[in-house]
Amino acid sequence: MANAPLVSAPQCSKSQSSTVDASRFPIVAAREDGQTSVVTIGDVPFGAGSVPVIAGPCAVESQALIAEGAGLVASLGAAVLRGGAFKPRTSPYSFQGLGMEGLQMMRRAADDAGLPIVTEVLSPELVEAMEPLVDAFQIGARNMHNFPLLEAVGQSEKPVLLKRHFGATITEWILAAEYIADQGNDAIILCERGIRSFGDETRFTFDLAGALWAKSQVRLPVVVDPSHAIGVPELLGAAAAGAVAAGVDGVMVEVHPDRENARCDGAQALNGEQFEALMARVAGAARAVERTIYAG
């Protein structure tokens, strides 16, 4: 009987490397000493060791609500106020924000609460008008590949929080940061906010591994937004605590003082009691790995 043909053993897939290739990211690549650059929003440092929490409603809805929201998150330990005056929505019939009037409301509320603000900018034409009122620009997920907008904020003197598009690779996300830095502004914070996958049990898939890989490749601070990544308020405390224990440089969450009547993303927002519990859980996780939550 003829010998059976030899069958080669299946080959294991090649593992991915975390070695930094600075030629791909010549401006924002990780430093040789491994240290993270410090980027400040107002006077709040990201990348300095302690962990700031960014919190607030999805959208600015009225002066009274943003003032209540700002006071709430400030009283519970948030370091930066978030909120959208300009809201890109999937449906053209959804609430689109209050525009510059909403931004002025947010500025007044933040000043009264003693917080700096980060808010989304949608077009290059808005950068100059918004710059005097903001402490940091946010580039939302849908605008991560809006190259004229990246270049416009790159010419600004304000820091930029750059969210990852839900369909983007990590390399594409970092290259979007290169677009900003190439214009002269390297005060950039990367924000992981979930990627689209095959499951629908959560809003998106929270890619903490991707955030950590990005952190290994760049000198920029990396923060996470579990509100958009997961969309389930009851899961956000554990996700935020785990991310802080893993080493991210900050956390962003949505908090609304009247989430049942919110005009935007109320179902995924935390109420005051839930945010207080999240802050306690995040502080405990930080202590467990000898870190602290930024407290001003």
Blueprint of the fold:
Layout: E1 39-41, E2 44-46, E3 53-56, H1 63-75, E4 80-82, H2 99-113, E5 117-120, H3 124-130, E6 136-139, H4 147-154, E7 160-163, H5 170-181, E8 188-192, H6 208-217, E9 222-224, H7 226-230, H8 233-246, E10 250-254, H9 272-288
Parallel strand pairs: 3-4, 3-10, 4-5, 5-6, 6-7, 7-8, 8-9, 9-10
Antiparallel strand pairs: 1-2
Helix pairs in contact: 1-2, 4-5, 8-9
Short description:
With 296 residues, the protein is of the alpha/beta class.
Description:
With 296 residues, this protein is α/β, with parallel strands linked by helices. It has one domain: Alpha-Beta Barrel (TIM Barrel), CATH 3.20.20.70. Helix content is 34%, strand content 13%. The protein is built from nine helices and ten strands. It has helices at 63-75, 99-113, 124-130, 147-154, 170-181, 208-217, 226-230, 233-246, 272-288; strands at residues 39-41, 44-46, 53-56, 80-82, 117-120, 136-139, 160-163, 188-192, 222-224, 250-254. It has an eight-stranded parallel beta barrel, surrounded by six helices. The chain has a two-stranded antiparallel ribbon with strand order 1-2. Mean pLDDT is 93; it is low at 4-10.
CATH class: Alpha Beta
Shape: globular
Unreliable sequence segments:
4-10
CATH topology: TIM Barrel
Radius of gyration: 20 Å
Please bin the fraction of helical residues. Answer: 25-40%
Number of strands: 10
Measured by DSSP, the beta-strand proportion falls in 5-15%
- Number of DSSP helices? 9
> At CATH's second level, what is the architecture?
Alpha-Beta Barrel
Q: Can you summarize the main beta sheet?
A: 8 strands, parallel, barrel
Average the pLDDT over all residues and give the rounded result: 93
SSE string, helix = H, strand = E? EEEHEHEHEHEHEHEHHEH
Structural class based on helices, strands and sheet pairing: alpha/beta
What number of domains?
1
Find the CATH superfamily: Aldolase class I
**What strand order characterises the main sheet?**
3-4-5-6-7-8-9-10
Distance between the termini: 81 Å
